[in-house]
Specification:
This is Phosphoribosylglycinamide formyltransferase. This protein is an alpha/beta fold. Helices cover 36% and strands 23% of the residues. It has 2 domains: 1-103, Rossmann fold (3-Layer(aba) Sandwich), CATH 3.40.50; 111-138 and 147-197, 3-Layer(aba) Sandwich (Rossmann fold), CATH 3.40.50.170. The model has no long low-confidence stretch (mean pLDDT 97).
Length: 197
């Protein structure tokens, strides 16, 4: 029995596309059952629909900061498809402790830094400003603390002379597209041993 996966996005969904492409392979231990965005404008929704996956938008704006009500709407959509695993793939909303607790141990996130370094935003600029020699991305289990939780995989890239946040981000994104599918495949098969690419 394949694990059922829901993916949350906020934008174009490039990591989501890579996850879907990998789950389309016959030997994958998981299958996608839903792609959810917090805005109907998210470009990834159309991509997911073209790939044959159910999509839904739950716009956070009408909830006017009532995160509990917004998350109740998210959970109602999840209840319709009963996923086993929830993947955050560029989902730009901070989830409350209550929502995370419901999914703890079953919710993955990808973050563009080598955690525990550079939690939060502007990770590429922060790595350059710190004079780091390498940077990268991390897939981790989500806990109530922001960008915390057990690490399931990391991929590194060197920081090169003359790098800007944009050039570094582009190289890290390529690694994200390799790392996230690899980690999900292992996680869905019951393997939580961290990997390094």
């Amino acid at each position: 029995m394949k694990k059922r996966v829901a993916i949350f996005i906020s934008g174009g969904g490039s990591n989501m596309v890579r996850l879907l492409e990998d789950m389309n392979k016959d030997d994958h231990p998981a299958e996608p059952v839903l792609v959810l965005a917090n805005s109907a404008d998210a470009g990834g929704l159309a991509k997911a629909a073209q790939m044959g996956v159910k999509t839904v938008a739950v716009d956070h704006r009408p909830f006017k900061g009532d995160r509990a009500a917004f998350e109740a709407a998210l959970q109602a959509e999840l209840d319709t498809v009963q996923p086993d695993i929830l993947c955050l793939a560029g989902f730009m909303r901070v989830l409350t402790e209550g929502f995370v607790a419901t999914w703890e141990g079953r919710m993955l996130n990808i973050h563009p830094s080598l955690l525990p370094k550079y939690k939060g935003l502007h990770t590429h600029a922060r790595a350059i400003d710190a004079g780091d020699e390498e940077h990268g991305c991390t897939v981790h289990l989500v806990t109530p603390a922001l960008d915390d939780g057990p690490i399931l995989g990391q991929a590194t890239v060197p920081i090169e002379d003359g790098d800007t946040p944009e050039t570094l981000a582009a190289r890290v994104l390529k690694q994200e597209h390799e790392l996230y599918p690899a980690v999900l495949r292992r996680f869905a098969a019951g393997n939580t041993t961290p990997i390094t690419l």
